[in-house]
Amino acid sequence: MGKKVTRYQAINETELSDYHELNPRRSKAWLASVAGVALFVAAGIWGSHYLEQDPPPVAKSASVAVSAPLQREVEQRLSFLGQLAAAKQVEVRAQVGGTLKGIYFDDGDIVRQGQLLFEIDPEPYRIKHAQALAELSAAQARLSLATRELARAQQLKDTDAGSAENLEQKQAGKLSAQAAVTGASAMVRDARFDMDRTRVRAPFTGRIGAHQVSVGNLVAGSRAGNASTTLLATLVSLDPAWLNFDMSEADYMKFQRERAKAPGRLANTVYASLGDEAKFDRIGTLDFVDNALDRASGTIRARATLKNADGFLTPGAFARVRLALSTKSAVLLVPDAAVLPDQSDHIVLTLGKDNVVTPKKVELGDLRGGLRVILSGLAPNDKVIIDGIPSAAPGSKVAPHPGTIRFDAGKD
After folding, report:
1. Which of 406, 393, 412 is nearest to 62 (CA)?
2. Any bridge partners for residue 319, and if so which?
3. Coil, strand or helix: which one is 243?
4. CA separation (Å) from 165 to 97, 148, 151, 160, 244?
5. Cβ-proximal residues to 342 (8 Å cutoff; 6+ apart), any chain
6. Residue 288: helix, strand or coil by DSSP?
7. pLDDT tens across 235-286, in order?
8. How is 65-120 classified by DSSP, letter by letter?
9. Which among 283, 323, 274, 289 has a CA at the least distance from the CA of 307?
């Protein structure tokens, strides 16, 4: 059954349609008003919902610890890494060849100068020496005979019983015999030299390495060193020990200028510490600086001499080196972690106006008491950021609180 439409509704719908057709502008305005009201209501609902939410968080300033640089009087010095070396080192080789007959040390022993180390079979050289002695005896006998013959010829000449020619012959015979004696004597000394060199002795006191040839092996020797020889062992001296290290060109310039100001032992005093030692208790003397910089590395070789009476310092071991340059003077110190690399330079972050992070370029010295020496670039009243550095970007604003810089005398 269809829906009934009343006459009033039909008339109203008809009139409304006629109204839109007759008044299109008013109809559009009416619709726009209705849409505006709807949008206003929706905006009010959305706005009230937005106001009910929490506002976005405001970024907080990073918290950092700041402190003035620590002031302390210290002497200027340079630090290097060096390597120990023996003042004397020799390869023990035989000067004569033959069969190795004996070894008279234990590998690694400390041997004294003149101590017997090796013995080569001396029998062939004894035979050679005996032959040389026989030749010398024969030459001496011929000289004795020639001397007597010359004396008789001289007597005959004096009594006119002998000729001058005979006298000259006897004189020549004596000179020849004397030359033979001289040559035979040299052969005896040569044979004695070879026979003595069959006993190889330590040229100086030091520590000997492992023997390279066992008993019974045939070894080659050469007195002149111009032929292949057999390496028997290696010997290094112990006391004193050398400490070699390289200076950069910049450090070398500092060293040269400071040494010119104080041309005494202060500028040549070296302090050394081994890898497992905390303190620099070993004192030496700088006794050599090379005469030219190495063009490839930009460094110059230097050497210090250290006492090693107990033989503890071993050639080849590494050691830290400190070279004192001057007497004590006031410097500024900051934690080493507060120093940041900036390409080829270094900077320290400080607190500027309105708590803004301000970097300062600095010149560094060595470590003293666990702190880094600042040679230039900082003022005593600067506020250095010593903690919270990763969150303190240059130009950013931070929230500072007081910090403390401590000097550790045990690390000086």
Report:
1. 393
2. 82, 274
3. strand
4. 51, 17, 14, 12, 74
5. 359, 361
6. strand
7. 999 999 999 999 999 889 988 887 777 665 556 889 999 988 878 889 999 9
8. EEEPPEEEEEEEEEEEEEEEEES-EEEEE-SS-EEEEEE-S-TT-EE-TT-EEEEE
9. 283
Report the Cα–Cα distance between both ends of the chain, in Å, rounded: 111
Amino acid at 72: R
pLDDT tens-digit map of 349-373: 999 888 899 999 998 887 888 899 9
d(CA 399, CA 62): 6
Give CB contacts under 8 A, 24+ apart, made by 389-394: 389/64, 389/337, 389/338, 389/340, 389/349, 391/62, 391/63, 391/64, 392/62, 392/64, 392/349, 392/357, 393/357, 394/349, 394/357, 394/358, 394/359
Residues paired with 373 in a beta bridge: 333
| H or E segment and range at residue 305 | strand 299-306
Among residues 374, 307, 294, the alpha carbon closest in space to that of 335 is found at: 374
Contact 315, 84 (CB under 8 A): yes
> What does the alpha-carbon distance between residue 301 and residue 315 come to, in Å, rounded to a whole number?
17
Can you say whether residue 349 is alpha, beta or left, with left for phi > 0 and alpha for psi between -120 and 50 degrees?
beta
Q: Which amino acid is at 105?
A: F
Residue 13 in tokens: 């719908």
Cα Rg of the chain (Å, integer): 50
Determine the Cα angle at 70 with ends 337 and 375, to 5°. Answer: 75
Which CA distances in Å does 318 have to 83, 275, 301? 4, 7, 15
For residues 361 and 350, is the Cβ–Cβ distance under 8 A? no
- C-alpha pair distances (Å), 16 with each of 175, 199, 248, 305: 167, 140, 102, 118
E-assigned strand segments in 136-281: 199-201, 206-208, 218-219, 231-236, 241-248, 269-274
Output the pTM of the full model: 0.64
Torsion sign across C-alpha atoms 34, 39, 42, 47:
negative
Beta bridge partner(s), residue 402? 66
Q: Which two tokens stand for residue 193?
A: 């030299």
